[in-house]
Write a structure and sequence with these properties.
Helix content is about 40%, strand content about 5%. The protein has about 90 residues and is mainly α. A two-stranded antiparallel sheet has the order 1-2. The radius of gyration is 16 Å and the shape is elongated. It starts with a helix and ends in a 21-residue tail after the last helix.
């Protein structure tokens, strides 16, 4: 059975919230993270997730998290505390 438009938007909202929570656990905050409103009204299978904009420090922290430099608690791997990058 195919999902309705409302179900697709809800599924995308849940994915955005899960992404926000996991990024926050890693010390990354993307303040503009949201569902792209233009694709909610369109005929795409699922709305797009807009990762939005962030400052340089958050971009570098995201790179570090994705490359494995930070653990799930936000601390640098092999060290006890984050490196001083701020939100």
């Amino acid at each position: 059975m195919a999902l309705t438009a409302v179900e697709r938007v809800r599924a995308t909202e849940e994915a955005v919230e899960q992404l926000r929570e996991e990024l926050a656990r890693a010390g990354v905050v993307l303040p503009s993270l949201r569902i792209d409103p233009l694709t909610c009204a369109g005929h795409v299978l699922f709305p797009l997730v807009d990762l939005g904009r962030c400052n340089l420090d958050m971009a570098l922290r995201l790179v570090a998290v994705l490359s494995g430099a930070y653990g799930p608690d936000g601390a640098r791997v092999g060290e006890g505390a984050p490196s001083g990058l701020s939100n």
